[in-house]
Amino acid sequence: MKKTLTIVLLLAAWCSPAWAAEETEYLAVFMQGKKVGHAAYTRSVEGDQVTTSEDVSITISRLGIPLTVRMTDISVETTTGKPLSFESIQVLGTMTVIKVTGTVGSDGVVELVSTSMGAEQKTTIPWPDGAVMSEGLRLVTLEKGLAPGSEYRVKIFDPSVTQALDAVVSIGSKREVDLLGRVVKLTEVTSTLAMPGSGPITSTSYVDDDMQALKNTMSIAGMNVDMIACPKEFALGENDVLELINTMFVASPTPLGNPRRASAITYWLAPSGSEEFTIPTTDNQTAERLDEGEVKLVIRPVAALEGGTFPYEGSDPALLEAVKPTRYLQSDRKEIVELARKAIGDTKDPAEAVRRIEAFVADYIEDKSLSVGYASAAEVAASRQGDCSEFAVLTAALCRAVGIPAQVVVGIAYVEDFAGHEGFGGHAWTQAWVAGKWVGLDAAFKSSGRGGHDPGHIALAVGNGDPTDFFNMAGALGRFKIEKLEVEQAL
Q: What predicted TM-score, i.e. pTM, was given to this entire model?
C-alpha cells in the first residue's frame, strides 16, 4: 500500500518554481489539510552551467508506524537550457536507497547508472527529442509569460522516472490566494501531466509576477495535496500525524466475506467526480465501458493449467521483457537465483513452479512490517521483511530467475477486516505466464491465511515492479466508486 511513495514521486515530477535569483525556496507539504513534510528548491549558476536541486520529503503514519519517503532530483544544464547530467536519489522508508545518475552525451545518448544495495546496473537511453529539465523549463516559462487565456505544451524530462512527461500549461486570471494567513494576488496556472500509463493528472499553481510558484494544489489518489511557500523554519519544522490507512479504502456496497468462495465477481464502477478513470483488461478481468463513464468489470481468475515448459524461449517482446532483471526485480542476483531454485525444487511444470514460489514467499517473509517504504527483491531476500509490495516483487523476481515471465500488479483488493476497515484497500500482487495465460499470485494473502489471488482483486496497473507503476493506481484511486456487485459462487 504505497500511496505515500506515489505522492512523493508526483511532487518531485511536478513543475518547479521559476526563480529570479540564486537561492533556496521552501514549501510546506500538506495532505488532507495536515502538514506532512516539505519541499526545497535550489538553483545556482556557475559559469555557463546551471544546477537545480529539488528535494521533497513527507512522513505519514500507517497503523501508528511512521514512514518517511524522500526524493532528491538534481539537474545540470547550460544557461541556455541544454541538458548535461542529472541525478535522482530515492529514500523509500527504512531500507531502500535507489540512486540513478545520467550523463547526456553530445550524440543525444544518455549513459545511465542505477545503484541499489551496492550493486550497479548500467544502460543507455536516447534523450527524448525536445525534452527539457528544470532550467529549460524555467526558460520556456519565462518566454511564454502569463497572458490570461494562453496555453502551451512542453515535454519535461523527470530524473526520478528517467523519461519525458508531456505537459499542457494553461494560464488563467489573477485571484487572491491564502498563503498560510497571508493573502496575495497571484496568477492561476493549470498544468496537466500525462503520467506513464495513468492518464492525465492536473495541478493548479499560483505564481507571482516573477513567475515564482507560491502555491501548488492537486488531487492524488483521492487525496488533496498542497505545497505552500513559507519560511524555512516552518517548512522544516514539526509535522502533523496523518494516518494514511483511513484514506486507502474504496467502500464495498455489500460485505463479500471471503472472495475465494466465488468463481467470478462482476463490479459496476461509477465515476466519483468529473474526472475519468481507466481500468485495464487482463487475462483475469474484463472491463467494459458503459454510458456516463461507468465501467462493468468482470473478474474471473485464470487457473494455472498444467503443461508447458520453462524457461521461456519464445519471441514475444512483452514476455521477453517480463523475464529480464530490473532495478527492483534483480532476478540475476546470486541470492535470488538460489532462492528460486530452492523454491521450485525438482518440478519441470510451470504451474507447479509458480504455486511453489507463491507458497515459498508466503513463508519466507517473516516480518510483515509497514515500516518499509518500497524494497527491491534483493533487499527483501536479505531482510525477510515488508508488506504486500515486498511479497509481490520477491515473487516476481523468483519467477523470472527460473525463466518464467512475471509482472507486478497494483490495484485494490477486498479485505473483511484490516485495522477495523472493511472494503477494497490499495494492494500489490504478482502475475506469472503459465500455459499461455497470466495467472494471479498473491503471496501476501497466502501468508495471512487468505489463500492467494481471487476475484476480490481489482487490477489498476501492471508493470516491472518500479515505484512509478503506482502512478497508474494514483490515476484511478479516488476517481471511482463501486456502485454494486454480483457474486458468482464456485461450484
A: 0.76
